[in-house]
Amino acid sequence: xxxxxxxxxxxxxxxxxxxxxxxxxxxxxxxxxxxxxxxxxxxxxxxxxxxxxxxxxxxxxxxxxxxxxxxxxxxxxxxxxxxxxxxxxxxxxxxxxxxxxxxxxxxxxxxxxxxxxxxxxxxxxxxxxxxxxxxxxxxxxxxxxxxxxxxxxxxxxxxxxxxxxxxxxxxxxxxxxxxxxxxxxxxxxxxxxxxxxxxxxxxxxxxxxxxxxxxxxxxxxxxxxxxxxxxxxxxxxxxxxxxxxxxxxxxxxxxxxxxxxxxxxxxxxxxxxxxxxxxxxxxxxxxxxxxxxxxxxxxxxxxxxxxxxxxxxxxxxxxxxxxxxxxxxxxxxxxxxxxxxxxxxxxxxxxxxxxxxxxxxxxxx
Length: 365
Prior knowledge:
single chain; alpha+beta
């Protein structure tokens, strides 16, 4: 038996490192983190990044509170990966255990976090640029920079996170190629590409796109019940519009994908299956349809990722929370009496909030 028998602390620390290595969006937005414990559904108050006004001095100063401005954030995003493990797996060295269990589990959680951040950003984007596939230079990014300039968005900490389609569209252009080739080898390493028209640019495979063949519906409203995996679509455009497998939509900052084809009758699809349980009840909510590649442009202070720690479960002696750089991962090793097997659970709780829609834009198409 190897000497380094795995403990929850060792696993949690490894999980946190893997999670940080696989995140793109979460490393680019404003973060609010503390070690206080919360429960799913708690609403907390977080401070927004301070804004000041340069006032005329006419003989007496006027104090401006650096802490003014706050926003309520609901801690409703609870992501979990629980897998059965054997005693043999728990005696592996950390490298092998990470490869077999930790890395795929945390990659799934990282994907969920990035997808959620992008979904919220796309839903609240104030600035919209229609992508030009025939452009010979990254003019889409330039057009977005102009919109940000007019809106007086600060130049520092501007980011564009690109769908792969957009990345390769721009990289193939002469201007972008020169940016990518300049400086150091870091230019095209991992997700980072380079600075273009005041934006630091990145690629994220979690930016949403439509399937090759999409349904004919161009708009609809969604009615749903929490926990179910079906939705009702109303006000479908047109009255006999269709949805196809792979079509996706965003509601309340959550992205859902349709998993079967359906056709509207009189503008309504009574029920259609989606890929995961619904996060909440809602009635006739406007859906943001994903009909083309989407990239997200934003300033760091436009979107907030708010993380807190989950409390350690009562009676669980094999549990640990690892936290660093605004993230906290909980690991619990337990014995499942129902199925008579050991399980290991990785989970994280967080909330996402748009802070300033003037600092958010999207490139679509």
